Amino acid sequence: MKEKKYAAEKIENFQAEVPMEEYVKECVDVATFLEFCKECSNYGKLWCCPPYTFDVEKDYWNKYRKIQIMGRKLYLPKELTSQSYVEDEQWKVTEEFLRPYKEELEEEILKLEQKYSGSISLSSGACLHCKKAECTRVSGEPCRFQDKMRYSIESLGGNVGKTVTKYLNQELQWVEEGKLPEYFMLIYGLLIL
Q: What does the domain layout of the chain look like in residue ranges?
């Protein structure tokens, strides 16, 4: 695990458990989110990103009985929010801030999978185990980290913004040009049989 270069000012955790039928009806639109994914530079280049060789609805959303949604709200230190950034610097600082927290949360949720037989977790954003240039998908080889790689809610067609608002009673904040938000939220899911 990476050491934290920047520590969060404050951390809040949120959780909700939702019947899968309700969650799919309220927050999943595979076709719409697939179109968003096509606009991303990771599309088709990372194993955690579409297009997939499986049926998202059948193999994920309709296979499980409920989803446990977990959100971790990370307030950025003032030293980061009080500055202006050029684009490359902004993304570098964002990555340096978020990565250690994503790694911690991933460890926690992989342990939860052990607690619930047959469950599978959904990550917050792209896979942490390879950099884009190192992912074996582009060379047609299998994923080297199949035991750890997980898909994100949004890559499977879930609306994370609506999920956060409806089930965690929170709002997402987004990076604006040259400015970091007051906080980031990492959203994970656990699909339970």
A: 10-192
